Amino acid sequence: MRSLAVLTVVTGLIATFALPAYAAWQPADLEIPTLQQVASEDAQSLIVASDATGTQLTRESYSATTQAEIDQKKAAEAAAERARASAQVASVPFDYSIVPQGSGAVRWPVGGPFTVTDRFGDRGGAHMGTDMVAAGGTPVYASVDGVVRISQDSYGGYGVTVVVESVLNGQQVSTVYPHMQTGSRQVAAGQTVTAGQLVGLVGSTGRSTANHLHFEVYLDGTAVDSLAWLEANAG
């Protein structure tokens, strides 16, 4: 009987030391985490700033690879740049006034009824003048006093053209009169002209599809809105 009691005590001691160390304090309601939970809790996280935005990838998000795609992309970029330049030209204020309105120092170049079609900065910013559509043969006058620098029957895409160089109140002014009728030029290079003097007749020579005067004005070598310049100075 005594041997049985000793055996029972020894067995109990062995069982006690065989239990894991945490078994003595492990809460009864503790749940054993699953493998999926461990993996989830140990996973790396991507922290995104609150002001960051996502980008939706499309076919256009990738760089062009063929020559056709490259050319198309370049053309689109060039068109966007022309539009941006045109918008900048339109948004920048410019004082076109050189002489008092109605003083006679600046005259309208078309001696008859005309309709303004394409304006300065049109066609994606490539149009450097004002198109004044008028009947063929309508007189074209010098807008300002000056000296004829160019008088040609074939001045590139401008066709029959006269260019007059002037100085108004210390500012260099160049006025351009293109697309006139063949044989209508009334002045020669080097000749002095006065405002209102006949220089030719409205026509459609050069790169043109209708009778009109494509009137250009340059101030100190920079193209400006010729219609606004006329309105500010010719009255």
Automatic annotation (TrEMBL):
The UniProt record lists the keyword Signal: yes
Assigned keywords, A-Z: Signal
Classification via InterPro entries: Cell_wall_metabolism_enzyme, Dup_hybrid_motif, M23ase_b-sheet_dom
Extent of the signal sequence: 1-23
Domain M23ase beta-sheet core: 126-225
Gene Ontology MF terms: metalloendopeptidase activity
Full protein name: Peptidase M23
